[in-house]
Design brief:
The chain has 419 residues and is α/β, with parallel strands linked by helices. Strands 5, 6, 7, 8, 9, 10, 11 and 12 form an 8-stranded mixed sheet that branches. Strands 2-3-1-4 form a 4-stranded antiparallel sheet. Helix 4 (55-70) runs antiparallel to helix 5 (75-88) and helix 5 packs across helix 6 (92-116). The chain has helices at residues 6-9, 18-33, 35-45, 55-70, 75-88, 92-116, 120-123, 128-137, 142-149, 166-175, 214-223, 240-248, 262-275, 319-322, 328-344, 365-374, 382-388; strands at residues 155-159, 180-181, 189-192, 209-211, 230-234, 254-259, 280-283, 298-304, 346-356, 378-380, 399-401, 411-418.
């Protein structure tokens, strides 16, 4: 509510028992995921119209309602523990109010839910502007997308094929008691039936496997790096795609990973070290080529643009609270600037893969459509690139992946060849 991302704001004590860490994370994420539905319900449960609560008390009431509405925690335990939490927070005077609100929800929750659920935005816990935009951009699928955004995300792994065969690692997982869910990806992308701590994964510390959604794993495949090429990973942090490129093409002449955030680049370095691969990591604005580029063109460029992240809401439910419609034009301008800058660094005959985890046309197909219209040296080769990995890209330009498709996050890719 103070404008920070959930991943940044949430601090979990590593000494906490694993089951408690999992429960804490689930309660926090689900409370944020359903906040835009739970908050109107809470307002109706308060004794006085327009009553405002101290921020900690308000947040705690939301978590209490979330337990009653969206978990299998016994109702008496949810009420008692939430009331006790108010006392632990030094809000003893609010404990009675919390108790009254939660017990009233037990009695009247179904009727209150029917009332607030008449509105689609409230029922699906999305900001109204986003519901309207998704309806325009995905007229046949937006209801499915809204529903999928509220699901807990699946747990995808990427097997490091430079170190272990996918079939062998699958057997290793099964030997450790992990259940692997059915999916359309079997050669290196494995979906576990439940999320686990990375330390539980066999060979994680040795770089045998990484956690990465199947949609994000398409980036390196579509880039299709070849031995002895020079590759740029623009906007590289936190480094999942960087590592994947090097796993697929360990004989690259050089991979340059650039990101504007020196702090986030630490994650890139950590990922590379764990995987046992190397790249030249540079903290810089990719679009300011004079500040970092040596003038030698790249054979392939992966441009994973900063965006609204509206395709990965199920992983980052705080997007629904943090993002505003007014943010989109500035993001589009930045995406266009980055695309032009990276295109100027690409060799003739090279390939640029434009990647975005936005669900909005303005940040994806519209950006590529405009670029293709104004630069005759660019050819959309997305259809051929997707066919090469056994997938259909759709009508274009580029390829739009709706969240939930084959278990994947929402994503967009455009493969542009320089002719």
């Amino acid at each position: 509510m103070q404008g920070r991302s959930l991943e940044t704001a949430l601090r979990i004590d590593p000494a906490m028992a694993p089951q408690h860490r999992g429960l804490l994370r689930a309660l926090v994420f689900d409370s944020v995921r359903w906040y835009l539905r739970l908050d109107p319900i809470l307002r109706q449960l308060l004794s006085r119209r327009g009553q405002s609560l101290q921020p900690q008390v308000h947040a705690l009431a939301i978590v209490g309602l979330c337990q009653l509405a969206y978990t299998d925690i016994p109702a008496h335990a949810a009420v008692n523990e939430t009331v006790e939490a108010a006392r632990l927070l030094g809000q003893a005077r609010a404990a009675g109010m919390i108790n009254a609100v939660l017990r009233r929800y037990q009695r009247e929750g179904a009727a209150l839910a029917r009332r607030v659920d008449r509105d689609l935005a409230t029922r699906t816990a999305h900001p109204r502007w986003l519901v309207e935009q998704l309806a325009r951009d995905w007229p046949e699928q937006y209801l499915t997308i809204l529903e999928a955004n509220n699901q807990r995300p699946p747990f995808w792994l990427r097997v490091n094929r430079s170190k272990v065969a996918a079939a062998q690692y699958r057997r290793e997982l099964e030997a450790h008691g992990f259940e692997i869910a059915a999916s359309m990806f079997a050669d290196e992308a494995l979906m576990l039936a439940r999320a686990v701590e990375v330390a539980e994964l066999p060979g994680f510390a040795q770089g045998l496997v990484s956690v990465q959604d199947a949609a994000a794993q398409l980036a390196a495949r579509l880039l299709a790096p070849q031995p002895h090429e020079r590759v740029l990973d623009a906007c590289a942090a936190p480094g999942g795609k960087t590592g994947h490129i090097l796993e697929l093409a360990p004989e690259l002449d050089e991979l340059v990973a650039v990101d504007a955030s020196a702090e986030r680049l630490q994650r890139v370095e950590e990922n590379l070290q764990r995987l046992g691969v190397r790249a030249r990591v540079i903290a810089a604005d990719v679009a300011d080529a004079r500040a970092w580029w040596d003038g030698r063109p790249f054979d392939r460029i992966l441009l994973d643009v900063p965006c609204s992240a509206t395709g990965v809401i199920r992983r980052h439910p705080d997007v629904k609270l943090l993002r505003r419609a007014a943010d989109i034009p500035a993001l589009v301008a930045k995406q266009q600037k980055l695309l032009r800058a990276c295109w100027s660094m690409l060799k003739p005959g090279g390939r640029l893969v434009y990647a975005s985890c936005s669900a909005l046309l303005a940040e994806t197909a519209d950006v590529i459509d405009g670029f293709l219209a104004h630069d005759s040296s660019a050819r959309d080769s997305t259809r051929e690139a997707f066919a090469a990995i056994g997938m259909d890209s759709g009508p274009g330009p580029g390829a739009r992946i709706a969240v939930g498709t084959a278990g994947m996050d929402g994503f967009y890719y455009a493969c542009l060849d320089k002719v």
